[in-house]
Amino acid sequence: MDLYEHQARELFKGYGIAVPDAAVVDHPREARHAAELLGGRVVVKAQVKTGGRGKAGGVKLAADPAAAEITARQILGMDIKGHTVRRVMLAQPVDIQDEFYASYVLDRAAGTFLAIASAEGGMDIEEVAATRPEAVARIPVDPAEGVTEAKAAEIAAAAGLPAEAAGALRRLWEVLVREDALLVEVNPLVRTAQGAILALDGKVTIDDNAVFRQARWGETPDAPAAEADPLEAAARARGLNYVKLDGEVGIIGNGAGLVMSTLDVVAGRGARPANFLDIGGGASAQVMADGLDVILSDPEVRAVLVNVFGGITACDAVAEGIVQALESVHLTKPLVVRLDGNSAARGRAILDARAHPLVEQVTTMDGAAARAAQLATR
User: Fold this and answer.
1) Which end of the chain is more exposed for a tag (fewer CB within 10 A), N or C?
2) Which domains does the chain have, with CATH numbers?
3) Which residues pair with 235 in a beta bridge?
4) Which residues are catalytic?
5) What's the CA gap between 206 and 3, in Å, rounded?
6) Rounded to an integer, what distance in angstroms lies between the CA atom of residue 131 and that of residue 325?
7) How far is CA 49 from the centre of its chain?
8) Alpha-carbon gap, residue 322 to 242, rounded angstroms
């Protein structure tokens, strides 16, 4: 469960992390009044559970209360990556001297947490990580030890953050642990011209398994927010176990462990997974068609990888499901299929007989991931 920025901000404030004064409104006239209370000049920020708001025009500076009302009117109702803006947050502007990036994330593969920090925060942190990885520090955090003062100082030093940022790093860890979070991110964490450390933006993802302990956020897995990712909402309506990610390789597998491994192998081949989709043991034609339809609806997907290990559900049944799904889904992107296990040979023969021009088979998981990554990034 992702929190809105204003929710993350209130959470940070409760843990002693400094944030600018702000107010949340859902009507332009309320924005004028809020701006008056905040001193007149404000930053108006769309409240949606997705990134890229600034580049989409969802974050703007308003010089006075009248401008704040006009700006709020422009932003409210906007569509940002499929999310409708229903509320805006108005925040006092800050005289920024330096921008940093700081986050904690669960590292499932290593069985630990990872602190990720950089002295070069801001909108283009992804580009910094991709082009100059040495500028982004990645420090493992032992869950049993946590982030002590010494660990916070280590993270700050490794990332080139000022020593005074260590306090905020330690408190962000407290947010992660006490709020059952899988991700806590601040971008940017800033140092003002007066030397104060402030969190200007925040992203917090709560573990869905702990939502019953976090009921104050008003969202449960059975009652998703209206602003939930539209692809995830469409998948949920079809009974699919789907999670949207930011990548270009769509992934379908049977079994959570196999799907997670597939994500890792695809990433190791230089591409980014676009989703997690576990079809479990029921790879029927309808399930496969529904899965392909959701994945192909993602404009970022450039190739799809189906990775199935036949067990209770044999590979020939999976292949039949794929063939039947191709009759109802208009396949526009390459589909790489790896079948192994029970009746794999027969399953491959079924797909060979169908001979769809956009479907190709690879017998190994590593080879299939490499081919899908190649198709998605060429």
Assistant:
1) C
2) 21-91 (3.30.1490.20), 96-213 (3.30.470.20), 230-377 (3.40.50.261)
3) none
4) 101, 185
5) 8
6) 39
7) 9
8) 18
